[in-house]
Amino acid sequence: MDKSQPQFQSHSRFLEITVISAESLRISNNLIKKNAFVTVQTDPGNCVSTPVDRDGGGYPTWNEKLHLALPGSARSIAVKVQCKTASGSSKTVGMVNIPMSDIVGGYVPAHHLHFLSYRLRQQDGERNGIVNLSIKMVGPENDSRPVLPLEKINGGIAVGIPVPYGCRM
After folding, report:
1. What is the greatest pairwise CA distance in the chain?
2. What's the CA gap between 77 and 132, in Å, rounded?
3. Neighbouring-strand partners of residue 80
4. Using one digit for the tens of pLDDT, what is the confidence trace for 51-82?
5. Could you tell me if 150 and 158 are in contact, meaning their C-beta atoms sit under 8 angstroms apart?
6. pLDDT at 21
7. What's the pTM?
8. CA distance 137 to 129
9. Whether 160 contacts 100, CB under 8 Å
10. What are the DSSP calls for 41-102, one per residue?
11. Which contiguous run of DSSP H or E holds residue 141?
12. Per-residue pLDDT at 167 exceeds 70
């Protein structure tokens, strides 16, 4: 899939994820020197990555916009920060699973842009840096979200009634 222009299907939801930066990334208690990148995944076959940041060391910046299909069964998004080693292999620096409830549901408008920062954890559970992202839902389903009519209450104030996503009238 072309990262810059998502191809929407009538039944698909997509996330537009901008991987902004990371802070205090360490390997063996030393700040990493270079070659950090981020992988974002909703399920095993649905994964996108940023290019490698060659200059940022333990404080890399990407400002890379990624588009990721979002299956209806997705409960979280896995974000993994990795570092390319001199041998060409990848070493995991830290990861976080972002619950979908942080992005959709409740009283959040359909195309709301979320700016989020998450603490990364190593595979052993130890803290290791922070990743900064912006995420918003995009796609045709957001445009057809039902809206209930406004009601007038005391003093003529209009109140909207929130409708859960997917509600059909």
Report:
1. 70
2. 14
3. 39, 95
4. 999 999 999 999 999 999 888 788 889 999 99
5. yes
6. 97
7. 0.74
8. 26
9. no
10. EEETTEEEEPPPBSS-TTS-EEEEEEEEEE-TT--EEEEEEEEE-TTS-EEEEEEEEEEGGG
11. helix 140-143
12. no
Tokens read off for 82:
């990795």
d(Cα 156, Cα 123) in Å, to the nearest integer? 56
Three-state DSSP class for residue 15: strand
Residue 88 tokens, joined: 């060409």
Could you give the CA distance from residue 128 to residue 60 in angstroms, rounded to a whole number? 14
Structure tokens at 147: 């809206």
Task: Extract the tokens encoding 151.
Answer: 């009601």
Query: What is the C-alpha to C-alpha distance for residues 83 and 60, in angstroms, rounded to an integer?
Result: 11
The one-letter amino acid at 78: A
Q: What are phi and psi of 100, to 5 degrees?
A: -60, -25
- Encoded amino acid at 6, one letter: P
